[in-house]
Amino acid sequence: MAVQASVFRLTGGRLMNKIRGMDICVVKTKGAKSGKIRYIPLMLVSYQEGVILVASLGGADVHPSWYWNIKAHPEILVYLKGKKLNLVAKQVSDDKKAELWTLICSFYPPYDAYQKRTERNIPVFNCQPT
């Protein structure tokens, strides 16, 4: 993932811009405990002026590490399609998640199977400009 994130950023998203044939974005976060900068390639779900991030971890029963980073430091930088967006990530309510779920799955259909695979309520973040 680190190599993909680096190549994506260095080429402005022209190379290594897909996972499983779907578009990605790269999210710059700050470590919740370490404070270190992390770059995470995630499925691109465009929404309003920003993106939606889905903390699915492939339907695992635990949150991905980046979930904790964003909860601790919601100010993120998202690289997508040659742009850099300064965004603030806010976890959505269950009602809002239900409202957005069809849109989310239209960008990456396996999300639905991931949610069915786990008892964990997969968190969703609406990331928009400040």
Describe the structure.
There is one protein chain. This protein has one domain (2-129): Pnp Oxidase, Chain A, CATH 2.30.110. The chain starts with a helix and ends with a strand. The model has no long low-confidence stretch (mean pLDDT 92). It has 130 residues and is an alpha+beta fold. Strands 1, 2, 3, 4, 5, 6, 7 and 8 form an 8-stranded antiparallel β-sheet that branches. It has helices at 2-10, 65-72, 94-107, 110-117, and strands at residues 18-19, 22-30, 37-43, 46-47, 50-54, 75-80, 83-91, 124-129. A hairpin with a 2-residue loop joins strand 1 (18-19) and strand 2 (22-30).
Compose a concise summary of this entry.
This protein is an alpha+beta fold and 130 residues long.
Percent helix range: 25-40%
Please, what is the oligomeric state? single chain
CATH level-4 homologous superfamily = Electron Transport, Fmn-binding Protein, Chain A
Determine the N-to-C terminus distance: 28 Å
Order of helices and strands: HEEEEEHEEHHE
Tell me, what's the shape? globular
Tally of helical segments: 4
Query: How many domains, in number, for the residues?
Result: 1
Question: Which class in CATH terms?
Answer: Mainly Beta
Total strand segments: 8
The main pleated sheet reads as: 8 strands, antiparallel
Uncertain segments = none
Mean pLDDT: 92
Structural class from helices and strands?
Answer: alpha+beta
By CATH, the architecture is named Roll
CATH topology: Pnp Oxidase, Chain A
